[in-house]
Amino acid sequence: MVFKGCPGGDNIKIPELEIVTCPKCGGEVEFFTRDKKSACSDCGYVVVRDTEASCIDWCPMAEECFGKEAVEKYRKKSES
């Protein structure tokens, strides 16, 4: 059987854009579904949001699903 990945990984592979309001200036802050923080395009304030753990954080098949390079990039970005 060929592993085609889990359906829960789609929001990481194909992220969706979400716009939130900057709490400092009221400007728009763009987040993709996989982002934990993003800077306001107007004032530069960094908005951090609570996110649930991604399957990349806990799934033993993450590297098979997304590829080793993508998993390492995601984990490095999550640490910063």
Which strand order does the major sheet show? 1-2
Tertiary shape:
elongated
Output the radius of gyration: 15 Å
Strand content: 15-25%
Order of helices and strands: HEEEEHHH
Describe the model.
There is one protein chain. The chain is an alpha+beta fold and 80 residues long. The chain has one domain (7-79). It has helices at 10-13, 55-58, 62-66, 68-79; strands at residues 17-21, 28-32, 37-39, 46-48. Strands 1-2 form a two-stranded antiparallel sheet. It is elongated. The model has no long low-confidence stretch (mean pLDDT 81).
For this entry, give a set of tags.
two-stranded antiparallel sheet; 4 strands; 4 helices; 20% strand; 80 residues; alpha+beta
Provide a brief overview of the structure.
The protein has 80 residues and is an alpha+beta fold. It has helices at 10-13, 55-58, 62-66, 68-79, and strands spanning 17-21, 28-32, 37-39, 46-48.
Topology summary:
Elements: H1 10-13, E1 17-21, E2 28-32, E3 37-39, E4 46-48, H2 55-58, H3 62-66, H4 68-79
Antiparallel strand pairs: 1-2, 3-4
